[in-house]
Write a structure and sequence with these properties.
Blueprint (H helix, E strand, L loop, with lengths): L1 E4 L7 H14 L3 E4 L12 H14 L2 E3 L8 E4 L7 E5 L6 H12 L6 E7 L9 H13 L4 E8 L8 E8 L8 E2 L5 E11 L3 H15 L6 E6 L6 E10 L3 E7 L6 H18 L5 H14 L2 E5 L4 H13 L4 E7 L2 E6 L1
Length: 338
């Protein structure tokens, strides 16, 4: 049985999620210790436990240590079982992060799968639903499967209450991906969403985005969400290119001005545009696992984060695969998987 130190690298929940996904896909059982050791509240939190139990159901796994606060877990998968599943996080824990745990095992299944997840859809510590559906899934679908995701109901932090519907049509074998250039920039737009908050927050955010990025008014979209459980504000800048789409996100917080949220988001957009790379920091992390399972791939991205480097280390524990990170120039790196 593989032993994993949960304090390695960035020492967060991604180590667990990647280990669960890889264990399901490879059949390799694991024992992880020091779970989330580098976090303020170490051990399993409710959203991590949902991922564990969801992976257990899909993989008919035997597990131990699956309690809130536990800093170790044993996971032993038996058989991948595609089908109909509903999982409720019960908090604003991220539905997209749970999906990243489960999807890899279903991409090459014998039958289609249908997943419904309830929880957070827009959480400051996770990719928003739009990133999952418009940035990650189009690239994942290029590998052969077809994954379709629908946002049924918004769920903001901390209230949660959102719902995501995902349908997976598997492929017999994953193809590879070679993403070296982003191509022509087709459109840049900004979307500011508010739920149970004044609309002027969204307008102020968009004012900063329009001025700083030189966008016309027609590219700025203010959205007031009806019938949302709890309050929330999310700002998204969408950079749609010929080969790839990227989304940069800012979240409203109590005590933080709308202008500050927008300025921070602009900083991320400018870094991406000036670097000239196709793949942003967070997408670089999420492409690793499916491309490793496909047996190869390559993409150009920003300087790899500690999160990405830790994910690479976890993948290498489960698979005999070479992942090289090569600096091409300042803030431009190639990640090659073979």
């Amino acid at each position: 049985m593989l032993t994993i130190d949960g304090a390695m690298g960035e020492g967060g929940g991604q180590i667990l999620r990647s280990a669960l996904a890889l264990s399901l896909c490879t059949g390799q059982p694991f024992h992880i210790q020091n779970l989330r050791k580098n976090r303020k509240k170490p051990g399993l939190r409710p959203q991590h436990l949902v991922a564990v139990h969801a992976a257990q159901q899909i993989g008919k796994a035997e597990i131990s240590g699956d309690t809130i606060g536990s800093e170790e877990l044993v996971f032993n998968p038996r058989q991948i079982t595609p089908g109909e599943y509903r999982f409720s996080i019960g908090t604003a824990g991220s539905t997209t992060l749970v999906l990243q745990t489960l999807l890899p095992a279903l991409l090459t299944g014998e039958q289609p799968s249908h997943l419904i997840l309830e929880g957070g859809t827009h959480n400051p510590l996770a990719p928003p639903f739009e990133f999952f559906s418009k940035v990650f899934l189009p690239l994942l679908n290029r590998l052969g499967p077809h994954v379709d995701a629908t946002l049924v109901r918004y769920g903001f932090y901390p209230a949660g209450g959102g719902e995501v519907d995902v349908r997976v049509t598997p492929t017999k074998r994953l193809g590879t991906l070679d993403l070296q250039e982003r191509g022509e920039i087709l459109e840049i737009s900004a979307h500011a969403l508010v739920a149970n908050l004044p609309e002027h927050i969204a307008r102020r955010e968009l004012g900063v985005i329009g001025t700083e990025l030189g966008l016309d008014q027609s590219a700025l979209h203010s959205v007031v969400l009806p019938s949302v459980h709890g309050r929330g504000n999310v700002l998204m800048v969408v950079v749609n290119c010929r080969q790839v789409t990227e989304i940069f996100t800012g979240y409203g917080e109590r005590g933080i001005s709308a202008e500050t949220v927008a300025a921070k988001t602009v900083k991320g957009v400018r870094r991406y545009l000036s670097a000239g790379v196709p793949v942003g920091e967070y997408l670089a992390d999420q492409l690793l696992l499916p491309l490793a399972l496909a047996g190869g791939g390559s993409y150009v991205t920003l300087k790899p984060s500690l999160h990405t480097l830790t994910n690479i280390d976890v993948i290498k524990l489960f698979m005999n695969i070479n992942i090289e990170c090569t600096e091409l120039q300042k803030d431009m790196w190639r990640i090659n998987i073979r």
